[in-house]
Write a structure and sequence with these properties.
single chain; Thrombin, subunit H; 20% helix; Peptidase_S1_PA; Trypsin-like peptidase domain-containing protein; Peptidase_S1_PA_chymotrypsin
């Protein structure tokens, strides 16, 4: 087989993957929202907390539970909102917490107003190590306006959310809780930033969502024994989001 043929094959496959990823990004972006609080007397009035994405019937947004503030300044009319669209003047939609799943750090928000476009949720049980993935969110917040950014990589490992420790001194309450109710998470070969918390993780080739980025909750137990926590990104499998949506 000639070197020219091999090169042509590699270029063709790479170009095909790039086109699939580009198509998937365009499919995903309209459904990715910023999760924020709005306080009229604050400057700026909008404070971005993380990322979320539209699911189910278009009236709901899922994000990480740790992104949601524990309390709002109701006296000054502070509200939980989602931001959608793109640019320096995004659309704002009021939201409320509808359901939470603390063990998996998930929150389901209910939107006011008309529906937004929901994403297609895939089957996280079929995810394999080496799958090409991407995630879209707001890694640097609103510094440059509401412009979602996409990072891409692979599923590097499917690993337990918490691992046994060598000494009781290394145990804390979150670690004990997750050892009692273990589940697997996706370790991603791609770097996420604090604003990415709640971003949808999707298969690059199809756009199906297979997980949700988690920047805080998982690292508390996965890397509690490390002197210098890594820049590794983790994601909660989408099966837990589906269970939350279906829970009565």
């Amino acid at each position: 087989m000639s070197s020219w043929f091999i090169l042509a094959f590699v270029v063709t496959v790479s170009d095909g993957f790039a086109k699939s990823l580009a198509d998937s990004i365009q499919q995903i972006k309209p459904s990715v929202v910023g999760v924020a609080t709005y306080l009229p007397t604050r400057s700026p009035p909008v404070s971005l907390l993380g990322t979320g994405f539209v699911v189910d019937d278009g009236y709901h947004v899922v994000t990480n539970a740790h992104v949601i503030p524990t309390k709002l300044n109701l006296e000054k009319k502070e509200r939980l909102v989602v931001l959608y669209g793109q640019g320096n003047k995004p659309s704002v939609r009021e939201a409320r917490v509808f359901k939470t799943d603390e063990p998996h750090d998930l929150a389901l928000l209910r939107l006011k107003g008309s529906t937004l476009k929901p994403l297609t949720l895939g089957d996280s049980s079929k995810v394999r190590e080496g799958n090409q993935i991407a995630f879209t969110g707001f890694p640097i917040g609103l510094v440059l306006g509401l412009y979602p950014a996409t990072h891409h990589g692979i599923v590097a490992s499917i690993t337990p959310v918490a691992i046994p420790v060598m000494s009781a001194k290394e145990l804390d309450v979150p670690h004990i809780q997750r050892l009692r109710s273990p589940y697997n998470v996706f370790q991603l070969d791609a770097t996420a930033y604090p604003g990415n918390s709640g971003s949808p993780v999707f298969l690059a080739a199809t756009g199906e969502v297979i997980g949700i980025v988690n920047k805080v909750f998982v690292k508390q137990t996965k890397e509690s024994v490390l002197a210098k926590p890594s820049g590794i990104t983790y994601a909660i499998p989408i099966s837990h989001v589906k269970a939350l949506i279906q829970r009565k």
